[in-house]
Amino acid sequence: MAQQSVVNQYAPFTTQTVMEFVKTLSIFDHPNKLIVKEIGDGNLNLVFQLVELETNRSIIVKQALPYAKVVGESWPLSLNRAKIESESLRMTARVVPNLVPHVLHTDHELACTVMEDLSDHHILRTELISNQHYPLLAQHIGYYVAQTSFATSDFALHPFVKKELVQKFTNPDLCKITEDLVFTDPFFDHPTNDFPHELRHAVETIWADEDLLTEVGLLKFQFLTHAEALLHGDLHTGSIFVTEQSTKVIDPEFAFFGPIGFDLGQFFANIILNTLSKLATTDRQAIVSDLLRAMEQTWITFAQEFTKLWDESNHEIYTNVPGILPRFLLKVWTDAIGFAGCEIIRRTIGLAHVADLDTIEDFHIQIEIKERALQLGADLIKSRTHLYSLGHFIQRIKGALRS
Ligand code: SR1
Ligand code: MG
C-alpha cells in the first residue's frame, strides 16, 4: 500500500520513499543495497543521489517541490517544471547528446526526473571562484547554444511543429520568476531586493536612471514576446558541470521559447561577475585574460556553428537572402549584451546573489566591486546597440576592470 502511494501520488520524497520509487524502475541489479543522500543545494528542488553498494553505480533523482525552496511555502510554484526540464533535456540531447545529462526515466505525476549522476564533474561557478581554467568550456557552450537554438527555431522547423513546441514549453511560473527577479524587482524599490546599506547610493542611482529603465523595459518585452528558440532559460555558471574534457549543461527547468541572446547573455554575465571578483585578488592578470577570451570564444563558436547550420540545414526560404543572417546575428549579439547587463545587476542587488561576489572577504572591496558591477551592468544595457563587435564589448569590460 505504501509503495503504491509512492508510485502514484505526488508527495515530496524522503530518502526512504525515493529508494522505494527507484526500486520500481529496475535500474539497479541490487536495489536493496542502495545508499541515498539528499544533495540539493539549489533554490527550488530536491536532489537525491542513490549509489548501489555492490557496483558503485549511481543515479540522480531530481524532484520539484510545489514551492520555491529558497523562500518557502509562501511562494508556490507549479510542478510542471519537472516535465519541462525532462522534456527539454531529451530534446536537447537530440542535437548535443554529450553536453547534457542522460535522462533514464521521467515521472510527471511525481514531478521527478531520474538521470545520470555527474559527480565526477564539478560545478563551474565553484571552479571559477577557485581560479580553475577549463579550456574547452567556451567552445562547448557556444556550440550548445548554436545547436539547441537553431534546431528549435523557425529556420529549422516547420511552422506547425515550431508552434506545437512553443505550446509544450510554455512555462509561465518559471518565466515569471525571471520577469520579476531579473527584469523588474532590482530596478525598483522592491522587497525582494537584497543589498547592504553601503550600496544604497549606487542602487538609488539605478532606480533613478530613466534611460536605463526604458532600456530594461524594452529588454523585458523582448524576453516576454520573442519566441525565437527553445532556451535553457537559466544558463548561469551554477547550471554547468565541468571536467577538463567534458561540459554538461544541467537544470533546464526554466526552458521556454524566448530570445536566443538570453542564454548567451546569462552565461556572459556570470563570467563577467567572476571576472570582477578577481579584482579582489593580487595575481589576477592571467585569470582575467582567460575569462575574457572564454567569452570571445563562446561568441565566435556560436556564430560559426549557427552560420553553418543556417547554410546547411535551413527550411526557411528567407535564409537564402544574404542580408538576413548578419542582421539576425547582430540582434542576438545586442540582446545578449543587454540581458547580460540585467543579470549582472540582479545578481548584485536582487533576491538571488552569486557566491563569486558575496564571498569576497574584505567587505570594503566587496562593496567597491559590487558598485563597479552595477555601473557595468547599466552601461552594457544602455550602450548595447553601440557595442557592435566583440572588440568593443571586451574593451568596455576592460574599462570597468581598470576604472
Ligand atoms: C526563486 S529562484 C531564484 C533564482 O534561482 C534560479 O536558479 C534562477 O536563476 C532564479 O532567478
Ligand atoms: Mg537551477
| E-strand count | 12
What would CATH call the homologous superfamily of the largest domain?
Answer: Aminoglycoside phosphotransferase (APH), C-terminal lobe
CATH class of the largest domain: Alpha Beta
Alpha-beta content class: alpha+beta
**Termini gap:** 66 Å
What binds here, in terms of ligands, is:
5-S-methyl-5-thio-alpha-D-ribofuranose, magnesium ion
Number of domains: 2
Q: Give the DSSP E fraction (strand runs of 2 or more residues).
A: 5-15%
Alpha carbon gyration radius = 21 Å
Indicate the low-confidence ranges by residue numbers: 1-5
Can you tell me the overall shape?
A: globular
| CATH architecture descriptor text of the largest domain | Alpha-Beta Complex
Whole-number mean pLDDT: 95
Tally of individual helices: 15
By CATH, the topology of the largest domain is Aminoglycoside 3'-phosphotransferase, Chain: A, domain 2
What kind of sheet is the major sheet?
5 strands, antiparallel
What level of helicity do the residues show? Answer: 40-55%
Topology as H/E string?
HHEEEEEHEEEHHHHHHEEEEHHHHHH
Main sheet: which strands, in order across?
1-2-3-7-6
GO molecular function: ATP binding; S-methyl-5-thioribose kinase activity
Enzyme class: transferase
InterPro entries: Aminoglycoside_PTrfase, Kinase-like_dom_sf, Methylthioribose_kinase
Organism: Croceifilum oryzae
